[in-house]
Amino acid sequence: MSKFGVMVCGHGSRSQAAVDEFAVVSTRLRERFPDWPVEYGYLEFANPVIRDGLDSLREQGCDEILAVPGMLFAAGHAKNDIPTVLNTYAKKHDIKVHYGRELGVDPKMIAAAGARVQEAVDRANAELGEMPNHDVCLVVIGRGASDPDANSNVAKIMRMLWEGMGFGWGETGFSGVTFPLVAPCLERVSRLGFKRVIVFPYFLFTGILIDRIYGFTDEVAAAHPDVQFVKAGYLNDHKQVIDTFAERVTEILDGQNLMNCAMCKYRAQVLGFEAEVGAAQESHHHHVEGQGASAPGSNVEDCVHCDTFCTGACRLAMGDAHDHAHSHGHDHSHDHHHHPHPHAKHPDGPESVRDRVKG
Q1: Are residues 225 and 161 in the same domain?
Q2: What pLDDT, on the 0 to 100 scale, is given for residue 255?
Q3: Is residue 8 part of a domain?
Protein backbone atom coordinates (compact mmCIF):
# COMPACT_ATOMS: atom_id res chain seq x y z
CA MET A 1 0.00 0.00 0.00
CA SER A 2 1.26 3.48 -0.92
CA LYS A 3 2.35 5.93 1.72
CA PHE A 4 1.48 9.49 0.80
CA GLY A 5 3.52 12.59 1.53
CA VAL A 6 2.84 16.25 0.83
CA MET A 7 5.40 18.55 -0.82
CA VAL A 8 4.95 22.33 -0.93
CA CYS A 9 7.09 23.86 -3.69
CA GLY A 10 8.06 27.50 -3.32
CA HIS A 11 10.09 29.92 -5.36
CA GLY A 12 12.51 31.04 -2.66
CA SER A 13 13.70 34.47 -1.60
CA ARG A 14 16.84 36.29 -0.49
CA SER A 15 14.76 37.57 2.43
CA GLN A 16 15.02 35.35 5.50
CA ALA A 17 11.70 36.71 6.73
CA ALA A 18 10.02 35.53 3.51
CA VAL A 19 11.61 32.09 3.82
CA ASP A 20 10.46 31.83 7.44
CA GLU A 21 6.91 32.82 6.53
CA PHE A 22 6.75 30.26 3.73
CA ALA A 23 7.91 27.53 6.12
CA VAL A 24 4.84 28.24 8.25
CA VAL A 25 2.65 26.88 5.45
CA SER A 26 4.07 23.39 5.93
CA THR A 27 3.47 23.68 9.67
CA ARG A 28 -0.17 24.61 9.09
CA LEU A 29 -0.60 21.79 6.58
CA ARG A 30 0.85 19.27 9.04
CA GLU A 31 -1.98 20.28 11.33
CA ARG A 32 -4.47 19.60 8.51
CA PHE A 33 -2.90 16.29 7.46
CA PRO A 34 -1.61 14.64 10.65
CA ASP A 35 -1.35 11.22 8.98
CA TRP A 36 0.90 12.41 6.13
CA PRO A 37 4.44 13.78 6.28
CA VAL A 38 4.59 17.35 4.93
CA GLU A 39 7.78 18.96 3.62
CA TYR A 40 8.68 22.05 1.62
CA GLY A 41 11.46 23.31 -0.63
CA TYR A 42 12.45 26.14 -2.95
CA LEU A 43 13.47 26.57 -6.57
CA GLU A 44 16.20 29.10 -5.80
CA PHE A 45 17.80 31.53 -3.36
CA ALA A 46 17.01 29.50 -0.23
CA ASN A 47 17.32 26.13 1.44
CA PRO A 48 15.99 23.50 1.54
CA VAL A 49 15.65 23.13 -2.21
CA ILE A 50 12.76 21.08 -3.57
CA ARG A 51 15.00 18.05 -4.02
CA ASP A 52 15.81 18.10 -0.29
CA GLY A 53 12.14 18.04 0.67
CA LEU A 54 11.52 15.12 -1.68
CA ASP A 55 14.49 13.27 -0.19
CA SER A 56 13.04 13.75 3.28
CA LEU A 57 9.67 12.34 2.21
CA ARG A 58 11.32 9.28 0.66
CA GLU A 59 13.35 8.74 3.83
CA GLN A 60 10.07 8.74 5.74
CA GLY A 61 8.82 5.92 3.54
CA CYS A 62 6.68 7.91 1.09
CA ASP A 63 6.41 6.43 -2.37
CA GLU A 64 3.56 8.61 -3.61
CA ILE A 65 3.89 12.38 -3.26
CA LEU A 66 1.21 15.05 -3.57
CA ALA A 67 3.10 18.17 -4.65
CA VAL A 68 1.56 21.63 -4.81
CA PRO A 69 3.08 24.87 -6.09
CA GLY A 70 3.27 27.60 -3.47
CA MET A 71 2.22 30.10 -6.12
CA LEU A 72 -0.72 32.45 -6.41
CA PHE A 73 -1.01 32.01 -10.17
CA ALA A 74 0.34 29.70 -12.85
CA ALA A 75 3.11 31.30 -14.87
CA GLY A 76 6.57 30.02 -15.77
CA HIS A 77 7.54 28.78 -12.31
CA ALA A 78 4.39 26.70 -11.86
CA LYS A 79 4.16 25.56 -15.48
CA ASN A 80 7.83 24.94 -16.24
CA ASP A 81 10.34 25.03 -13.44
CA ILE A 82 8.62 23.09 -10.68
CA PRO A 83 7.22 20.33 -12.94
CA THR A 84 10.67 19.81 -14.45
CA VAL A 85 12.24 19.35 -11.02
CA LEU A 86 9.46 16.98 -9.93
CA ASN A 87 9.42 14.92 -13.13
CA THR A 88 13.19 14.56 -13.07
CA TYR A 89 13.17 13.44 -9.44
CA ALA A 90 10.28 11.00 -9.93
CA LYS A 91 11.99 9.31 -12.86
CA LYS A 92 15.36 9.11 -11.11
CA HIS A 93 13.93 7.55 -7.92
CA ASP A 94 11.05 5.59 -9.49
CA ILE A 95 8.32 7.12 -7.33
CA LYS A 96 5.00 8.71 -8.15
CA VAL A 97 4.70 12.48 -7.87
CA HIS A 98 1.27 14.00 -8.47
CA TYR A 99 1.37 17.71 -9.16
CA GLY A 100 -1.46 19.97 -7.99
CA ARG A 101 -2.54 23.33 -9.28
CA GLU A 102 -1.78 26.85 -8.15
CA LEU A 103 -3.93 28.72 -5.61
CA GLY A 104 -5.55 30.69 -8.42
CA VAL A 105 -8.67 32.84 -8.44
CA ASP A 106 -10.63 31.20 -5.64
CA PRO A 107 -13.41 32.49 -3.36
CA LYS A 108 -11.28 31.68 -0.32
CA MET A 109 -8.32 33.62 -1.67
CA ILE A 110 -10.56 36.58 -2.45
CA ALA A 111 -11.94 36.40 1.08
CA ALA A 112 -8.40 36.43 2.51
CA ALA A 113 -7.51 39.38 0.29
CA GLY A 114 -10.67 41.18 1.34
CA ALA A 115 -9.74 40.70 4.99
CA ARG A 116 -6.30 42.27 4.47
CA VAL A 117 -7.82 45.21 2.59
CA GLN A 118 -10.49 45.66 5.26
CA GLU A 119 -7.80 45.79 7.94
CA ALA A 120 -6.21 48.69 6.06
CA VAL A 121 -9.58 50.41 5.62
CA ASP A 122 -10.35 50.10 9.33
CA ARG A 123 -6.91 51.39 10.31
CA ALA A 124 -7.20 54.38 7.95
CA ASN A 125 -10.67 55.25 9.19
CA ALA A 126 -9.42 55.11 12.78
CA GLU A 127 -6.21 57.08 12.25
CA LEU A 128 -7.06 59.44 9.38
CA GLY A 129 -10.81 59.91 9.73
CA GLU A 130 -13.87 58.11 8.43
CA MET A 131 -14.23 57.90 4.67
CA PRO A 132 -16.74 55.73 2.79
CA ASN A 133 -15.24 53.15 0.44
CA HIS A 134 -16.90 54.77 -2.56
CA ASP A 135 -14.62 57.77 -2.01
CA VAL A 136 -11.49 55.57 -1.85
CA CYS A 137 -9.40 54.11 -4.69
CA LEU A 138 -8.06 50.56 -4.40
CA VAL A 139 -4.76 49.62 -6.06
CA VAL A 140 -3.82 45.93 -6.18
CA ILE A 141 -0.17 45.20 -6.92
CA GLY A 142 0.73 41.77 -8.31
CA ARG A 143 4.12 40.15 -8.78
CA GLY A 144 4.03 40.44 -12.55
CA ALA A 145 4.89 37.64 -14.96
CA SER A 146 5.81 37.04 -18.58
CA ASP A 147 2.52 35.15 -18.84
CA PRO A 148 -0.44 37.46 -19.63
CA ASP A 149 -2.90 34.88 -18.30
CA ALA A 150 -1.36 35.13 -14.83
CA ASN A 151 -1.31 38.93 -15.04
CA SER A 152 -4.96 39.02 -16.03
CA ASN A 153 -5.81 37.05 -12.91
CA VAL A 154 -4.38 39.83 -10.76
CA ALA A 155 -6.72 42.22 -12.55
CA LYS A 156 -9.60 39.86 -11.83
CA ILE A 157 -8.75 39.76 -8.13
CA MET A 158 -8.68 43.56 -8.14
CA ARG A 159 -12.09 43.74 -9.80
CA MET A 160 -13.62 41.27 -7.35
CA LEU A 161 -12.34 43.34 -4.43
CA TRP A 162 -13.31 46.66 -6.01
CA GLU A 163 -16.86 45.63 -6.76
CA GLY A 164 -17.31 43.43 -3.70
CA MET A 165 -16.17 46.11 -1.26
CA GLY A 166 -17.64 49.10 -3.07
CA PHE A 167 -14.54 51.18 -3.73
CA GLY A 168 -14.81 54.27 -5.89
CA TRP A 169 -12.24 53.03 -8.38
CA GLY A 170 -9.71 50.23 -8.82
CA GLU A 171 -6.37 49.90 -10.55
CA THR A 172 -3.87 47.09 -11.06
CA GLY A 173 -0.09 47.43 -11.02
CA PHE A 174 2.89 45.07 -10.92
CA SER A 175 6.23 44.88 -9.16
CA GLY A 176 8.10 43.82 -12.29
CA VAL A 177 8.25 41.96 -15.62
CA THR A 178 5.10 43.58 -17.04
CA PHE A 179 3.31 46.93 -16.80
CA PRO A 180 2.23 49.24 -15.32
CA LEU A 181 4.86 49.14 -12.61
CA VAL A 182 4.13 50.40 -9.11
CA ALA A 183 5.37 53.98 -9.37
CA PRO A 184 3.75 54.94 -12.70
CA CYS A 185 0.55 53.19 -11.63
CA LEU A 186 0.38 55.20 -8.39
CA GLU A 187 1.36 58.41 -10.16
CA ARG A 188 -1.66 58.07 -12.44
CA VAL A 189 -3.93 57.14 -9.56
CA SER A 190 -2.84 60.26 -7.68
CA ARG A 191 -4.34 62.36 -10.49
CA LEU A 192 -7.79 60.74 -10.35
CA GLY A 193 -9.04 63.03 -7.61
CA PHE A 194 -9.30 60.51 -4.75
CA LYS A 195 -8.14 61.70 -1.36
CA ARG A 196 -7.36 58.21 -0.11
CA VAL A 197 -5.72 55.28 -1.90
CA ILE A 198 -5.38 51.75 -0.49
CA VAL A 199 -2.28 49.97 -1.86
CA PHE A 200 -2.61 46.21 -1.48
CA PRO A 201 0.26 43.88 -2.48
CA TYR A 202 -1.40 40.66 -3.61
CA PHE A 203 1.56 38.57 -2.46
CA LEU A 204 1.75 35.50 -0.26
CA PHE A 205 4.75 36.55 1.80
CA THR A 206 7.11 39.41 2.57
CA GLY A 207 10.42 39.98 0.84
CA ILE A 208 12.40 42.42 -1.26
CA LEU A 209 9.48 43.08 -3.59
CA ILE A 210 7.13 43.97 -0.75
CA ASP A 211 9.73 46.41 0.56
CA ARG A 212 10.03 47.87 -2.92
CA ILE A 213 6.26 48.25 -3.31
CA TYR A 214 5.98 50.06 0.01
CA GLY A 215 9.03 52.15 -0.88
CA PHE A 216 7.53 53.32 -4.18
CA THR A 217 4.29 54.05 -2.33
CA ASP A 218 6.18 56.30 0.08
CA GLU A 219 7.88 58.09 -2.83
CA VAL A 220 4.62 58.84 -4.62
CA ALA A 221 2.94 59.82 -1.34
CA ALA A 222 5.71 62.34 -0.65
CA ALA A 223 5.18 63.87 -4.08
CA HIS A 224 1.40 64.10 -3.52
CA PRO A 225 0.83 65.15 0.09
CA ASP A 226 -2.82 65.91 -0.62
CA VAL A 227 -3.52 62.17 -1.13
CA GLN A 228 -3.53 59.66 1.74
CA PHE A 229 -1.71 56.50 0.63
CA VAL A 230 -2.54 53.59 2.96
CA LYS A 231 -0.42 50.41 2.79
CA ALA A 232 -2.36 47.17 3.27
CA GLY A 233 -0.70 43.97 4.46
CA TYR A 234 0.02 41.00 2.19
CA LEU A 235 -1.81 37.65 2.49
CA ASN A 236 0.65 35.68 4.66
CA ASP A 237 -0.83 32.66 6.50
CA HIS A 238 -4.43 33.84 6.61
CA LYS A 239 -6.70 30.89 7.44
CA GLN A 240 -8.41 31.05 4.06
CA VAL A 241 -5.02 30.85 2.33
CA ILE A 242 -4.13 27.71 4.27
CA ASP A 243 -7.61 26.33 3.50
CA THR A 244 -6.88 26.81 -0.20
CA PHE A 245 -3.50 25.08 0.07
CA ALA A 246 -5.17 22.13 1.82
CA GLU A 247 -7.83 21.94 -0.88
CA ARG A 248 -5.17 21.89 -3.60
CA VAL A 249 -3.69 18.82 -1.91
CA THR A 250 -6.94 16.89 -1.45
CA GLU A 251 -8.31 17.66 -4.90
CA ILE A 252 -5.37 15.75 -6.42
CA LEU A 253 -6.80 12.56 -4.93
CA ASP A 254 -10.40 13.62 -5.56
CA GLY A 255 -9.75 13.93 -9.29
CA GLN A 256 -10.58 17.64 -9.39
CA ASN A 257 -7.05 18.77 -10.16
CA LEU A 258 -7.84 20.61 -13.37
CA MET A 259 -6.03 23.74 -14.44
CA ASN A 260 -7.77 26.31 -16.64
CA CYS A 261 -5.66 26.08 -19.79
CA ALA A 262 -7.91 28.12 -22.09
CA MET A 263 -5.59 31.14 -22.13
CA CYS A 264 -2.26 29.40 -21.50
CA LYS A 265 0.37 30.96 -23.77
CA TYR A 266 2.03 27.55 -24.22
CA ARG A 267 -1.19 26.03 -25.54
CA ALA A 268 -3.08 28.84 -27.27
CA GLN A 269 -1.94 31.66 -29.53
CA VAL A 270 -2.29 34.49 -27.04
CA LEU A 271 -2.03 37.95 -28.56
CA GLY A 272 1.60 39.10 -28.48
CA PHE A 273 2.97 35.75 -27.25
CA GLU A 274 2.35 33.57 -30.32
CA ALA A 275 5.99 32.43 -30.55
CA GLU A 276 5.75 30.57 -27.23
CA VAL A 277 3.11 28.02 -28.25
CA GLY A 278 4.55 24.54 -27.73
CA ALA A 279 7.79 25.70 -26.14
CA ALA A 280 9.69 22.98 -24.30
CA GLN A 281 9.13 22.53 -20.60
CA GLU A 282 12.41 23.15 -18.80
CA SER A 283 13.60 24.75 -15.60
CA HIS A 284 15.68 27.92 -15.59
CA HIS A 285 16.61 27.77 -11.90
CA HIS A 286 18.95 24.84 -11.49
CA HIS A 287 21.99 27.14 -11.46
CA VAL A 288 20.78 29.15 -8.44
CA GLU A 289 19.32 26.42 -6.25
CA GLY A 290 19.90 26.92 -2.56
CA GLN A 291 22.05 30.06 -2.86
CA GLY A 292 24.91 28.17 -4.46
CA ALA A 293 24.24 24.78 -2.91
CA SER A 294 25.62 21.88 -4.92
CA ALA A 295 22.90 20.75 -7.28
CA PRO A 296 23.55 18.15 -9.99
CA GLY A 297 21.92 19.17 -13.26
CA SER A 298 18.93 17.42 -14.65
CA ASN A 299 19.07 15.76 -18.01
CA VAL A 300 15.48 14.56 -18.05
CA GLU A 301 12.80 16.82 -19.50
CA ASP A 302 10.19 14.46 -20.78
CA CYS A 303 6.82 16.21 -20.78
CA VAL A 304 5.11 19.29 -22.09
CA HIS A 305 3.90 22.16 -19.98
CA CYS A 306 0.59 21.12 -18.51
CA ASP A 307 0.47 17.36 -18.87
CA THR A 308 0.74 17.00 -15.10
CA PHE A 309 -2.31 19.24 -14.66
CA CYS A 310 -4.74 17.85 -17.22
CA THR A 311 -5.57 14.83 -19.34
CA GLY A 312 -3.30 15.58 -22.26
CA ALA A 313 -5.22 18.40 -23.90
CA CYS A 314 -1.98 20.22 -24.68
CA ARG A 315 -0.51 17.19 -26.42
CA LEU A 316 -3.66 16.86 -28.50
CA ALA A 317 -3.72 20.57 -29.27
CA MET A 318 -0.06 20.76 -30.30
CA GLY A 319 0.17 17.38 -31.97
CA ASP A 320 2.50 14.41 -31.61
CA ALA A 321 5.29 16.23 -33.42
CA HIS A 322 5.56 18.70 -30.54
CA ASP A 323 5.34 15.89 -28.01
CA HIS A 324 8.26 14.03 -29.51
CA ALA A 325 10.28 17.16 -30.16
CA HIS A 326 10.02 18.14 -26.53
CA SER A 327 11.04 14.77 -25.10
CA HIS A 328 14.73 15.40 -25.11
CA GLY A 329 17.73 15.60 -22.88
CA HIS A 330 19.95 18.57 -22.05
CA ASP A 331 23.40 18.64 -20.61
CA HIS A 332 22.70 22.29 -19.62
CA SER A 333 25.97 23.41 -21.17
CA HIS A 334 24.06 26.15 -22.96
CA ASP A 335 22.41 29.22 -21.48
CA HIS A 336 18.68 29.09 -20.97
CA HIS A 337 16.67 32.18 -21.69
CA HIS A 338 13.18 33.41 -21.09
CA HIS A 339 11.17 34.77 -24.00
CA PRO A 340 11.23 38.56 -23.70
CA HIS A 341 8.03 40.36 -22.91
CA PRO A 342 6.70 41.67 -26.26
CA HIS A 343 6.48 45.16 -24.75
CA ALA A 344 9.60 45.09 -22.59
CA LYS A 345 10.41 48.70 -23.47
CA HIS A 346 6.97 50.00 -22.52
CA PRO A 347 7.57 53.33 -20.70
CA ASP A 348 5.73 52.05 -17.60
CA GLY A 349 7.12 48.56 -17.78
CA PRO A 350 9.93 46.05 -17.28
CA GLU A 351 12.91 48.05 -18.53
CA SER A 352 11.99 51.23 -16.70
CA VAL A 353 12.09 49.57 -13.27
CA ARG A 354 15.81 49.01 -13.62
CA ASP A 355 16.43 52.74 -13.95
CA ARG A 356 14.30 53.47 -10.89
CA VAL A 357 16.01 50.82 -8.76
CA LYS A 358 19.49 52.00 -9.81
CA GLY A 359 18.54 55.59 -9.16
Answers
A1: yes
A2: 79
A3: yes
